[in-house]
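User: I'm writing a short report section on ligand binding and want a predicted complex to refer to. Could you take this sequence and NAP and write out the structure as tokens? A short remark afterwards would be nice.
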Amino acid sequence: MAAIRIALALLVGLCAYYFYPQETFSAEMVRGMRVLVTGSSSGIGEQMAYEFARMGAHLMLTARRENRLQEVMQKCQKLGASSVHYVVADMSNLTSAQKVVEETKAQMGGLDQLVLNHVGGTMFGPFQGTIESVIRSMNVNFFSYVQLTISAMDLLQESKGNIVVISSMSGRIPGPFAISYSAAKFALEGFYSSLRAEMRLRKIDLPITVAVLGYIDTDMALNSVGDKITQKASSKEDCARQVVKGGVLRYREVFYPYWAVKPILLYRELLPDLVDQVMAYGYKLENIL
Ligand SMILES: NC(=O)c1ccc[n+]([C@@H]2O[C@H](COP(=O)([O-])OP(=O)(O)OC[C@H]3O[C@@H](n4cnc5c(N)ncnc54)[C@H](OP(=O)(O)O)[C@@H]3O)[C@@H](O)[C@H]2O)c1
Ligand SMILES: *[C@@H]1O[C@H](CO)[C@@H](O)[C@H](O)[C@H]1NC(C)=O
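Assistant: Sure. The structure tokens for the complex follow:
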């Protein structure tokens, strides 16, 4: 009986998904949109900025390295952004995070999409057993996200805007050698999925897209884990394209690369021990310990 009910529920779910009207994505949706992308001086954030620029968005960039921000800004202008601004800020300082939103309001007059992407303050390797390393990661990778969200809430309400949060497999599945990073990503998943649920009940329209990413070929990732894991990295350009599209269409979640991420999440729910064992083969311990 139970099995039949589950099968039936699955069938209904699949049909609903199949017949649900899928909105098609077009550059027109992005033209004139005011977007803040954090961590946009390199990596996936930089690529997302280019993606938004190509489609004519107004951009606010932010990170710590001013020279890099200037280079990204110039490229965004060439690609066709409606306007580009940047603000130098260190996200380990929550006052700076607040100021980034104030600057966004001052420069663009509002905000339509908040893309929370920056990452810092952690290293891949065995847990050092210090509280400082965990606090540092939580400050940069979790609390600053929350602060930016709180500061931007009114602007997003005004514009009926949305939030995109960059998470990771490490925010869904426990993994070794990035404990403080993983803790921050799990915290993000908890905070933003709970916030989404609460907003819905309070009938406040604030779509939240969580992007669950696998291994992406940014310089940072290749340098920190390139010789330590066996997996092959996926393209940061394609990743940025998929995340931007998912955010603009206000998907609940984006998985990238889909076939490397989604099946593992599903299998881990069903067979956690087996998946842990299989995943353990992915680490080159001789290069880590
Ligand atoms: N690459 C992957 O394999 C992978 C996998 C899963 C998830 N992700 C997620 O994807 C996102 C982007 O990662 P990525 O690979 O593109 O990293 P990345 O290339 O290292 O970029 C990180 C960005 O964050 C900025 N940043 C670092 N520390 C900061 C601080 N204290 N204050 C302000 N900005 C700071 C950096 O700029 P400055 O140094 O100039 O400040 C840079 O612009 C992250 O959320 C990451 O967790 C990546
Ligand atoms: C944090 O940033 C604010 C404003 O940007 C600055 O006044 C303050 O000195 C910073 N705090 C630290 C500890 O760097």
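A remark for your report: The longest strand covers residues 162-168. The radius of gyration is 19 Å.
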